[in-house]
Amino acid sequence: MGNYMVHTQSGEKRIKRMIADYIEAARQRGDLKHAATLRLTLRHFIETHYHETAQ
After folding, report:
1. CA 31, 35, 41, 43: dihedral to nearest 10 degrees?
2. For 1-55, where are the alpha helices, taking DSSP H only?
3. CB 42 within 8 A of CB 23
4. 8-44: per-residue pLDDT in tens?
5. pTM of the predicted model, to two decimals?
6. Cβ atoms of 34 and 19 closer than 8 Å
7. Among residues 33, 1, 27, which one has the least CA distance to residue 14?
8. Would the pLDDT of 52 be above 90?
9. Residue partners of 10: CB distance under 8 A and separation at least 6
10. What do you get for the CA distance between the two ends of the chain, in Å?
């Protein structure tokens, strides 16, 4: 699904938002280790896939 989404007009922005939502959900349930892993995932996504035009 991510591969498809990254090639759509709003896909990169939507994926970034989804990961951010997962981070927040992990934080709210107290799963700080998973939240940290997801932050690294988000950082990697931004560095390798996210383009300024997607904002």
Report:
1. -170
2. 2-6, 11-28, 32-48
3. yes
4. 888 888 999 999 999 999 999 999 999 999 999 999 9
5. 0.81
6. no
7. 1
8. no
9. 54
10. 20
